[in-house]
Amino acid sequence: MKITRVEAIPFAIPYRKPLKFASGEVHVAEHVLVRVHTDDGIVGVAEAPPRPFTYGETQDGIIAVIEKIFAPQVVGLSLLERETMATRLARTVGNPAAKAAIDMAVWDALGRTLDVQVTELLGGYTDRMRVSHMLGFDEPAAMVAEAQRMRDEHGITTFKVKVGRRPVGLDTAVVRALREGLGDAVELYVDGNRGWTAAESAMAMKEMSDLGLLFAEELCPADDVLGRRWLVSQVDVPFIADESAVTPADVTREILGGSATAISIKCARTGFTHSQRVHHLAEGLGLEVVMGNQIDGQLGSICTVAFGASYRLTSRRAGELSNFLDMSDDLLTEPLQIRDGELAIRPGAGLGVEIDPEKLDRYRQDN
Ligand code: MUC
Ligand code: MG
Protein backbone atom coordinates (compact mmCIF):
# COMPACT_ATOMS: atom_id res chain seq x y z
CA MET A 1 0.00 0.00 0.00
CA LYS A 2 3.05 2.24 -0.36
CA ILE A 3 2.90 5.21 -2.73
CA THR A 4 5.67 4.85 -5.32
CA ARG A 5 4.90 7.60 -7.84
CA VAL A 6 2.60 10.57 -8.46
CA GLU A 7 2.00 11.65 -12.07
CA ALA A 8 0.57 15.02 -13.16
CA ILE A 9 -0.56 14.97 -16.80
CA PRO A 10 -1.90 18.12 -18.55
CA PHE A 11 -4.84 17.62 -20.90
CA ALA A 12 -7.17 19.91 -22.81
CA ILE A 13 -10.73 19.20 -23.96
CA PRO A 14 -12.79 22.02 -25.56
CA TYR A 15 -16.20 22.99 -24.23
CA ARG A 16 -19.05 22.59 -26.67
CA LYS A 17 -20.72 25.43 -24.78
CA PRO A 18 -18.37 27.75 -22.84
CA LEU A 19 -19.49 28.68 -19.31
CA LYS A 20 -19.54 32.42 -18.57
CA PHE A 21 -19.97 33.86 -15.08
CA ALA A 22 -19.11 37.01 -13.13
CA SER A 23 -15.51 36.10 -12.27
CA GLY A 24 -14.46 34.49 -15.56
CA GLU A 25 -15.29 32.16 -18.42
CA VAL A 26 -14.13 28.69 -19.44
CA HIS A 27 -13.78 27.65 -23.10
CA VAL A 28 -11.39 24.71 -22.80
CA ALA A 29 -11.03 22.28 -19.90
CA GLU A 30 -7.26 22.59 -19.42
CA HIS A 31 -7.07 20.25 -16.45
CA VAL A 32 -4.45 18.00 -14.86
CA LEU A 33 -4.93 14.24 -14.53
CA VAL A 34 -3.29 13.00 -11.32
CA ARG A 35 -2.31 9.33 -11.00
CA VAL A 36 -1.05 7.85 -7.74
CA HIS A 37 0.80 4.54 -8.13
CA THR A 38 1.47 2.02 -5.34
CA ASP A 39 3.90 -0.84 -4.88
CA ASP A 40 0.95 -3.26 -5.33
CA GLY A 41 0.51 -2.08 -8.92
CA ILE A 42 -2.64 -0.09 -8.04
CA VAL A 43 -3.28 3.28 -9.74
CA GLY A 44 -5.65 5.85 -8.20
CA VAL A 45 -6.90 8.75 -10.35
CA ALA A 46 -8.38 12.24 -9.94
CA GLU A 47 -8.41 15.51 -11.87
CA ALA A 48 -7.37 19.05 -10.90
CA PRO A 49 -9.25 21.87 -12.66
CA PRO A 50 -7.18 25.09 -12.44
CA ARG A 51 -9.28 28.17 -11.67
CA PRO A 52 -6.83 31.08 -11.90
CA PHE A 53 -9.54 33.72 -11.40
CA THR A 54 -10.73 32.12 -8.16
CA TYR A 55 -7.77 30.43 -6.44
CA GLY A 56 -4.77 31.62 -8.50
CA GLU A 57 -3.80 28.15 -9.74
CA THR A 58 -2.83 27.47 -13.36
CA GLN A 59 -2.34 24.19 -15.22
CA ASP A 60 1.47 24.74 -15.34
CA GLY A 61 1.53 25.72 -11.66
CA ILE A 62 -0.41 22.63 -10.59
CA ILE A 63 2.02 20.37 -12.46
CA ALA A 64 5.06 22.18 -11.03
CA VAL A 65 3.86 22.10 -7.42
CA ILE A 66 2.91 18.41 -7.67
CA GLU A 67 6.17 17.35 -9.33
CA LYS A 68 8.54 19.54 -7.31
CA ILE A 69 6.91 19.86 -3.87
CA PHE A 70 4.03 17.45 -3.23
CA ALA A 71 5.10 14.20 -4.95
CA PRO A 72 8.39 13.96 -3.00
CA GLN A 73 6.43 14.46 0.24
CA VAL A 74 3.93 11.66 -0.37
CA VAL A 75 6.06 9.03 -2.13
CA GLY A 76 6.96 6.38 0.46
CA LEU A 77 3.83 6.94 2.58
CA SER A 78 1.21 4.20 2.93
CA LEU A 79 -2.29 4.89 1.52
CA LEU A 80 -3.46 4.60 5.14
CA GLU A 81 -1.28 7.52 6.30
CA ARG A 82 -3.65 10.11 4.91
CA GLU A 83 -3.45 12.37 7.95
CA THR A 84 0.36 12.48 7.70
CA MET A 85 0.00 13.26 4.02
CA ALA A 86 -2.52 16.06 4.69
CA THR A 87 -0.21 17.57 7.32
CA ARG A 88 2.75 17.52 4.93
CA LEU A 89 0.78 19.11 2.09
CA ALA A 90 -0.59 21.75 4.49
CA ARG A 91 2.95 23.08 5.01
CA THR A 92 2.56 24.69 1.55
CA VAL A 93 0.05 27.55 1.52
CA GLY A 94 -2.72 27.54 -1.14
CA ASN A 95 -2.71 25.23 -4.20
CA PRO A 96 -6.09 23.73 -3.27
CA ALA A 97 -6.84 21.90 -6.55
CA ALA A 98 -3.36 20.32 -6.69
CA LYS A 99 -3.64 19.06 -3.10
CA ALA A 100 -7.24 17.90 -3.58
CA ALA A 101 -6.45 15.83 -6.67
CA ILE A 102 -3.62 14.00 -4.90
CA ASP A 103 -5.87 13.34 -1.91
CA MET A 104 -8.73 11.98 -4.04
CA ALA A 105 -6.40 9.79 -6.11
CA VAL A 106 -5.05 8.33 -2.84
CA TRP A 107 -8.61 7.50 -1.68
CA ASP A 108 -9.34 5.94 -5.08
CA ALA A 109 -6.16 3.84 -4.78
CA LEU A 110 -7.15 2.80 -1.26
CA GLY A 111 -10.63 1.73 -2.41
CA ARG A 112 -9.15 -0.28 -5.29
CA THR A 113 -6.64 -1.91 -2.92
CA LEU A 114 -9.34 -2.92 -0.41
CA ASP A 115 -11.94 -3.66 -3.14
CA VAL A 116 -14.51 -1.23 -1.72
CA GLN A 117 -16.12 1.91 -3.11
CA VAL A 118 -14.83 5.32 -1.99
CA THR A 119 -18.42 6.12 -0.94
CA GLU A 120 -18.41 3.07 1.34
CA LEU A 121 -15.07 4.10 2.83
CA LEU A 122 -16.27 7.63 3.53
CA GLY A 123 -19.75 7.03 4.94
CA GLY A 124 -21.82 4.88 2.58
CA TYR A 125 -25.11 6.74 3.10
CA THR A 126 -26.60 6.32 -0.40
CA ASP A 127 -25.53 5.58 -3.97
CA ARG A 128 -26.83 8.59 -5.92
CA MET A 129 -27.66 12.26 -5.86
CA ARG A 130 -30.14 14.55 -7.54
CA VAL A 131 -28.40 16.82 -10.06
CA SER A 132 -28.41 20.60 -10.24
CA HIS A 133 -27.38 22.17 -13.58
CA MET A 134 -25.45 25.44 -13.80
CA LEU A 135 -26.67 28.01 -16.34
CA GLY A 136 -23.98 30.50 -17.50
CA PHE A 137 -24.58 34.03 -18.79
CA ASP A 138 -26.67 34.34 -21.94
CA GLU A 139 -29.88 35.92 -23.19
CA PRO A 140 -33.01 34.95 -21.20
CA ALA A 141 -34.53 32.93 -24.07
CA ALA A 142 -31.32 30.93 -24.58
CA MET A 143 -31.03 30.16 -20.86
CA VAL A 144 -34.66 29.04 -20.68
CA ALA A 145 -34.14 26.82 -23.75
CA GLU A 146 -31.01 25.31 -22.15
CA ALA A 147 -32.87 24.58 -18.89
CA GLN A 148 -35.79 23.02 -20.78
CA ARG A 149 -33.36 20.83 -22.74
CA MET A 150 -31.67 19.70 -19.49
CA ARG A 151 -35.07 18.90 -17.99
CA ASP A 152 -36.37 17.08 -21.08
CA GLU A 153 -33.18 15.14 -21.91
CA HIS A 154 -31.80 14.43 -18.43
CA GLY A 155 -34.73 14.96 -16.05
CA ILE A 156 -32.90 17.77 -14.22
CA THR A 157 -35.24 20.02 -12.23
CA THR A 158 -32.80 22.11 -10.16
CA PHE A 159 -30.89 24.99 -11.75
CA LYS A 160 -28.18 27.31 -10.46
CA VAL A 161 -28.35 30.57 -12.39
CA LYS A 162 -25.17 32.61 -12.78
CA VAL A 163 -25.80 36.28 -11.92
CA GLY A 164 -23.62 39.31 -11.10
CA ARG A 165 -23.92 41.36 -14.33
CA ARG A 166 -24.74 45.04 -14.50
CA PRO A 167 -27.36 46.38 -14.57
CA VAL A 168 -28.84 43.79 -12.23
CA GLY A 169 -31.98 43.72 -14.39
CA LEU A 170 -30.06 41.67 -16.98
CA ASP A 171 -29.95 38.76 -14.53
CA THR A 172 -33.25 39.24 -12.72
CA ALA A 173 -34.96 39.11 -16.14
CA VAL A 174 -33.33 35.72 -16.75
CA VAL A 175 -34.48 34.29 -13.41
CA ARG A 176 -38.02 35.59 -14.03
CA ALA A 177 -38.02 34.07 -17.54
CA LEU A 178 -36.84 30.73 -16.09
CA ARG A 179 -39.59 30.70 -13.47
CA GLU A 180 -42.21 31.60 -16.09
CA GLY A 181 -40.82 29.15 -18.66
CA LEU A 182 -40.31 26.16 -16.33
CA GLY A 183 -43.03 26.70 -13.73
CA ASP A 184 -43.06 26.17 -9.98
CA ALA A 185 -41.93 22.54 -10.11
CA VAL A 186 -38.26 23.46 -10.65
CA GLU A 187 -35.81 24.64 -7.99
CA LEU A 188 -33.88 27.83 -8.82
CA TYR A 189 -30.99 29.50 -7.00
CA VAL A 190 -28.49 32.19 -7.97
CA ASP A 191 -24.69 32.50 -7.79
CA GLY A 192 -23.08 35.94 -8.20
CA ASN A 193 -19.39 34.92 -8.02
CA ARG A 194 -18.81 38.21 -6.13
CA GLY A 195 -19.95 40.29 -9.11
CA TRP A 196 -22.37 42.69 -7.42
CA THR A 197 -22.00 45.09 -4.51
CA ALA A 198 -24.01 44.38 -1.36
CA ALA A 199 -26.48 47.12 -2.34
CA GLU A 200 -26.91 45.76 -5.87
CA SER A 201 -27.38 42.28 -4.44
CA ALA A 202 -30.08 43.49 -2.03
CA MET A 203 -31.86 45.27 -4.88
CA ALA A 204 -31.74 42.15 -7.07
CA MET A 205 -32.97 39.85 -4.29
CA LYS A 206 -35.87 42.24 -3.63
CA GLU A 207 -36.74 42.25 -7.32
CA MET A 208 -36.73 38.43 -7.30
CA SER A 209 -38.55 38.01 -3.98
CA ASP A 210 -41.64 36.54 -5.69
CA LEU A 211 -39.66 33.93 -7.64
CA GLY A 212 -39.29 31.33 -4.89
CA LEU A 213 -35.48 31.10 -4.88
CA LEU A 214 -33.91 28.27 -2.91
CA PHE A 215 -30.54 29.92 -2.12
CA ALA A 216 -28.31 32.86 -2.97
CA GLU A 217 -24.55 32.26 -3.34
CA GLU A 218 -21.56 34.66 -3.18
CA LEU A 219 -23.52 37.62 -4.53
CA CYS A 220 -20.90 40.14 -3.33
CA PRO A 221 -17.32 39.86 -2.01
CA ALA A 222 -16.90 38.46 1.51
CA ASP A 223 -14.13 41.06 1.95
CA ASP A 224 -16.82 43.77 1.97
CA VAL A 225 -17.23 42.59 5.53
CA LEU A 226 -19.97 44.83 6.92
CA GLY A 227 -21.78 45.18 3.59
CA ARG A 228 -22.05 41.42 3.24
CA ARG A 229 -23.26 40.95 6.83
CA TRP A 230 -25.88 43.60 6.17
CA LEU A 231 -26.95 41.81 2.99
CA VAL A 232 -27.11 38.36 4.61
CA SER A 233 -29.18 39.74 7.51
CA GLN A 234 -31.90 40.83 5.10
CA VAL A 235 -31.91 38.01 2.55
CA ASP A 236 -34.65 35.55 3.47
CA VAL A 237 -33.09 32.43 1.89
CA PRO A 238 -29.90 30.61 2.97
CA PHE A 239 -26.84 32.54 1.74
CA ILE A 240 -24.14 30.13 0.51
CA ALA A 241 -20.44 30.83 0.99
CA ASP A 242 -18.54 29.20 -1.90
CA GLU A 243 -15.11 30.59 -2.85
CA SER A 244 -15.00 32.66 0.37
CA ALA A 245 -15.12 29.56 2.60
CA VAL A 246 -12.81 26.78 1.47
CA THR A 247 -11.28 25.54 4.74
CA PRO A 248 -13.01 24.72 8.05
CA ALA A 249 -11.48 27.93 9.46
CA ASP A 250 -12.97 29.99 6.59
CA VAL A 251 -16.36 28.37 7.16
CA THR A 252 -16.23 29.11 10.89
CA ARG A 253 -15.28 32.74 10.26
CA GLU A 254 -17.94 33.36 7.60
CA ILE A 255 -20.75 31.63 9.49
CA LEU A 256 -20.02 32.96 12.98
CA GLY A 257 -19.40 36.43 11.54
CA GLY A 258 -22.85 36.45 9.93
CA SER A 259 -21.52 36.66 6.35
CA ALA A 260 -23.08 33.36 5.24
CA THR A 261 -25.69 30.88 6.45
CA ALA A 262 -24.93 27.86 4.21
CA ILE A 263 -21.89 26.38 2.46
CA SER A 264 -20.77 24.81 -0.76
CA ILE A 265 -18.42 21.80 -0.51
CA LYS A 266 -16.23 21.32 -3.58
CA CYS A 267 -14.09 18.19 -3.66
CA ALA A 268 -12.04 19.82 -6.45
CA ARG A 269 -10.55 22.14 -3.82
CA THR A 270 -10.79 20.18 -0.54
CA GLY A 271 -10.40 16.61 -1.79
CA PHE A 272 -12.11 13.97 0.33
CA THR A 273 -10.05 14.39 3.51
CA HIS A 274 -10.71 18.11 3.99
CA SER A 275 -14.25 17.90 2.57
CA GLN A 276 -14.96 15.46 5.42
CA ARG A 277 -13.78 18.06 7.91
CA VAL A 278 -15.96 20.75 6.31
CA HIS A 279 -18.93 18.36 6.25
CA HIS A 280 -18.56 17.48 9.94
CA LEU A 281 -18.30 21.15 10.85
CA ALA A 282 -21.39 22.01 8.80
CA GLU A 283 -23.31 19.18 10.46
CA GLY A 284 -22.32 20.44 13.89
CA LEU A 285 -23.33 23.97 13.02
CA GLY A 286 -26.62 22.84 11.47
CA LEU A 287 -25.95 24.36 8.03
CA GLU A 288 -27.45 23.73 4.62
CA VAL A 289 -24.82 22.18 2.33
CA VAL A 290 -24.66 22.07 -1.45
CA MET A 291 -22.12 19.89 -3.26
CA GLY A 292 -20.61 22.41 -5.68
CA ASN A 293 -18.78 22.09 -8.99
CA GLN A 294 -15.54 23.75 -10.00
CA ILE A 295 -16.46 23.19 -13.66
CA ASP A 296 -15.19 19.62 -13.36
CA GLY A 297 -14.97 16.99 -16.07
CA GLN A 298 -16.46 13.51 -15.61
CA LEU A 299 -13.67 12.37 -13.29
CA GLY A 300 -14.19 15.38 -11.02
CA SER A 301 -17.96 14.87 -11.14
CA ILE A 302 -17.69 11.21 -10.09
CA CYS A 303 -15.51 12.39 -7.18
CA THR A 304 -18.21 14.87 -6.16
CA VAL A 305 -21.03 12.33 -6.27
CA ALA A 306 -18.86 9.73 -4.49
CA PHE A 307 -18.39 12.16 -1.62
CA GLY A 308 -21.89 13.66 -1.69
CA ALA A 309 -23.54 10.22 -1.58
CA SER A 310 -21.51 9.33 1.52
CA TYR A 311 -23.52 11.46 3.98
CA ARG A 312 -27.12 12.41 4.64
CA LEU A 313 -26.38 16.12 4.76
CA THR A 314 -24.42 16.27 1.48
CA SER A 315 -26.95 14.17 -0.45
CA ARG A 316 -30.06 16.01 0.73
CA ARG A 317 -29.88 18.81 -1.84
CA ALA A 318 -29.28 18.43 -5.57
CA GLY A 319 -25.52 18.47 -6.25
CA GLU A 320 -23.85 20.41 -9.06
CA LEU A 321 -22.83 17.41 -11.13
CA SER A 322 -23.59 18.23 -14.75
CA ASN A 323 -21.00 20.72 -16.05
CA PHE A 324 -19.37 17.86 -17.98
CA LEU A 325 -22.44 17.80 -20.26
CA ASP A 326 -21.11 21.02 -21.83
CA MET A 327 -17.74 19.44 -22.71
CA SER A 328 -17.10 18.02 -26.19
CA ASP A 329 -15.55 14.78 -24.84
CA ASP A 330 -13.97 13.26 -21.72
CA LEU A 331 -11.36 10.76 -20.57
CA LEU A 332 -13.44 7.93 -19.10
CA THR A 333 -13.96 4.57 -20.80
CA GLU A 334 -17.64 4.63 -19.84
CA PRO A 335 -19.23 8.11 -19.94
CA LEU A 336 -21.31 9.22 -16.95
CA GLN A 337 -25.06 9.20 -17.52
CA ILE A 338 -27.54 11.44 -15.75
CA ARG A 339 -30.89 9.62 -15.69
CA ASP A 340 -34.19 10.94 -14.32
CA GLY A 341 -32.29 13.90 -12.88
CA GLU A 342 -29.92 11.71 -10.86
CA LEU A 343 -26.27 10.68 -11.06
CA ALA A 344 -25.30 7.40 -9.42
CA ILE A 345 -21.91 6.38 -8.09
CA ARG A 346 -20.10 3.63 -9.98
CA PRO A 347 -20.36 0.05 -8.65
CA GLY A 348 -16.63 -0.79 -8.91
CA ALA A 349 -13.87 -0.43 -6.32
CA GLY A 350 -12.54 3.05 -5.51
CA LEU A 351 -14.26 5.59 -7.75
CA GLY A 352 -15.22 2.76 -10.13
CA VAL A 353 -13.98 4.53 -13.27
CA GLU A 354 -11.19 3.86 -15.77
CA ILE A 355 -9.24 6.28 -17.97
CA ASP A 356 -9.45 5.47 -21.68
CA PRO A 357 -5.81 5.28 -22.90
CA GLU A 358 -6.70 6.35 -26.45
CA LYS A 359 -8.59 9.39 -25.23
CA LEU A 360 -5.77 10.33 -22.89
CA ASP A 361 -3.31 10.09 -25.81
CA ARG A 362 -5.55 12.32 -27.90
CA TYR A 363 -6.03 15.05 -25.30
CA ARG A 364 -2.80 15.04 -23.26
CA GLN A 365 -0.56 18.03 -23.94
CA ASP A 366 2.80 16.61 -22.89
CA ASN A 367 3.47 14.22 -25.78
C1 MUC B 1 -19.33 28.22 -8.87
O1 MUC B 1 -20.09 27.71 -8.07
O2 MUC B 1 -18.91 29.33 -8.58
C2 MUC B 1 -17.23 29.07 -11.12
C3 MUC B 1 -15.95 29.30 -10.71
C4 MUC B 1 -15.56 28.21 -9.93
O3 MUC B 1 -14.48 28.03 -9.36
O4 MUC B 1 -16.58 27.33 -9.82
C5 MUC B 1 -17.63 27.75 -10.68
C6 MUC B 1 -18.97 27.52 -10.14
MG1 MG C 1 -20.19 29.49 -6.69
UniProtKB/TrEMBL annotation:
Organism this protein belongs to: Amycolatopsis thermophila
InterPro entries referenced in this protein's UniProt entry, alphabetically: Enolase-like_C_sf (IPR036849), Enolase-like_N (IPR029017), Enolase_C-like (IPR029065), Mandelate_racemase_C (IPR013342), Mandelate_racemase_N_dom (IPR013341), Muconate_cycloisomerase_anti (IPR034613)
Signal peptide (UniProt feature, chain positions): none
Family, as annotated: Belongs to the mandelate racemase/muconate lactonizing enzyme family.
Pfam families: MR_MLE_C (PF13378), MR_MLE_N (PF02746)
Keywords of this entry: Isomerase, Metal-binding
Domain Mandelate racemase/muconate lactonizing enzyme C-terminal, residue spans: 140-238
PANTHER family: O-SUCCINYLBENZOATE SYNTHASE, O-SUCCINYLBENZOATE SYNTHASE-RELATED
Keyword tRNA processing: no
Keyword Isomerase: yes
Name assigned to this protein: L-alanine-DL-glutamate epimerase-like enolase superfamily enzyme
Coiled coil: none
